[in-house]
Amino acid sequence: MVTLLKAILIFSFASFIQSSSCRSTESLPKNKGGDANSVTPDRGNRFTETDFEKFLTISELNREKPKKGVFETRGFVAKIYVCPACPPDAICKPCMADNIVISEEKKSLETYDLSEKEMIIFTAEAKNFEKGGEYRFKVEITTQKSTSQDLNDARLIRADLIK
What we know:
The chain is an alpha+beta fold. It has one domain (about 1-160): CATH 2.40.50. It has helices at about 1-20, 60-65; strands at about 70-80, 100-105, 120, 135-140, 155-160. Strands 3-2-1-4-5 form a five-stranded antiparallel sheet. The termini are far apart.
């Protein structure tokens, strides 16, 4: 009986963690085709300079370590992480929220051993980015810190693919 209660508590906790912290709301535009709930990084409606509070390079964000705020940056998508689905009736451990790693250099990363020229951006739409693609990002630096990166967590607000 105690083992069953432990399993139920673990499953409930894992479900809560995955539903509350692994998904974030986005303000990316809706995809015009396919599923009505899918969104993709914006490839139209270019930003204007007044859309952002401050532009900083990835290196500048990592050096300045702002505690919170909205910033613009740009970089290449070096890594894409999407939390794998948990099979029905399985007890899965919580995983890191969906995210992309961006870099000032065009390269591919397999780990989270990041340099000053790289940063993690949390987004529920990670799968919609092109690895190696260069984007202009509007991000919110939050007051939360869930990674070993010196910078507080960054949440995607908007992205434009740079041609």
